[in-house]
Task: structure prediction
Amino acid sequence: MDHRPQAWGRPRDDVYGPYDASYLHNNQPKTATQSPIVTGTSVIAIKFKDGVVMAADNLASYGSLARFTDVKRLRPFLSTSVVGFGGDVSDMQFLDRHLNELAIDEAYEAEGCSAGGLGSSAQEPDASPGASKGQLNAANLHKYLTKLMYRRRNSFDPLWNQILVAGFDSASAPFLASVDLRGTAFTSPSLATGYGAMLAQPIMRKYAATEEDAAKLTRDDAVRVVRECMKVLFYRDARSLDRFSLAVVTRDGVDISEDEVLEQQSWAFAERIRGYGTQTV
Amino acid sequence: MFRNNYDNDSVTFSPQGRIFQVEYAAEAVKQGSVVVGIASKTHVALVAIKRNAEELSSYQKKLFPIDEHVGIAIAGLTSDARVLSNFMKQQCLAHRLTYGRSMPVRTLVDMIGSKAQINTQHYGKRPYGVGLLVAGVDDHGPHLFEFQPSGMTEEMVAFAIGARSQMARTYLEKNLDKFADCDREELIRHGLKALKESLVQDRELTVDNTSVGVAGADKAGVVEPFKVYDGQEVSAWIESVADDKEAAPAGGSGEGETMEVDS
Result:
């Protein structure tokens, strides 16, 4: 009788022959995500004088197949910031759950601070419901996401996303920044991921090339520019959709509408396009 | 021979429901020299009496900066305080690195609270033999926290721990209502007066044995970083609370402000 713990619960060798343990341990190398599977395309965002406008379409593609057409790729954080995800949708879901946890922890912490103590009672109640004192702002969140993405890249298991973070920094100025699967981080008055970086960014730069320009833009201007960019993206990006989400972050909070539709499309330009497919000239 | 069978480790309850190791640790806090902390709406101050082992030796530090916005005052085993202080410094730095902001004071205090509590519930571990007053400023304004070896932490308006600290606490309780609206200098003077209450008969505050630490936050949330003042830097404050100045309306501090006279 074999009494070794390794043999517990196994068929007896003397009855069934030697046990083939080879498929108990898998000798393949560990493989992390090597390419995204279900993907979201561009996220675009532009600053204006009182905040930031962000947009992304509601499509999750499986390769070139438009697989899911009602995916929400803009997520609010603590109702003070918005995070927009391009790239792998499962990694987006992972990050979304993770950020939810973070937001809950933060909310508890803020409650602890306001529950008692001299310091909190000394301060006036916050004027705006959006800006909550002492909680993670968009700049803090972006810094955190940068560290998270860079750490995952360094363990050769990247989260395959390009992320835009919009909200306000500690000086209560509009904040917009990007981080990608390698942890590369930067900010700009307007930002776009994926195809948007090629197609939408030049249009947005016409309106907000510098911080000064962005500070002159009104909310309506910014929304109009973003809608225009979403239309151009739908015209030219084959992995895009005419239904999209639009988020406006101001000091009053986050306003996300998730069932926007592209209007006044004109495909007249399409027949003039040459140079692909079965055309001979 | 055996006075107590239930104090060999920190995991055994006595039949009366007490854990003696934790109580002994709290006793160690009372062996340390006294430290006082007070918070107002705008500032938080720590003041402490330093002790020297003998006439020829230097004085043991009592106040330690943790991060730009936080500092601690210790009473009890200095070597245990060193462990907690290093931990707090690391956590503050890590928070700064990952979030790009200074750590909320409550978050920090909760961390050492949990850390210390674990030591009271595992066989072979012992509680920290040190009590802390944690002073700091964050987006919610100035904060003062008390930390006990049991892992208990509590936010305070004013508090004193260490040897003979009861006298200082009595002074603080008597003047409790004044603290909220004190300015920086008044707050420090209240701290030093509380400290004087705890002194033994023939000792007094000197530039050698007194430490002062202050941090501040104004309405806009701008922070005066936590800074410790020692030696000659505290002489003006000590003079301003000297016994013969007590009755005089004009303060002896360099700022030339009128001093509040307490009944």
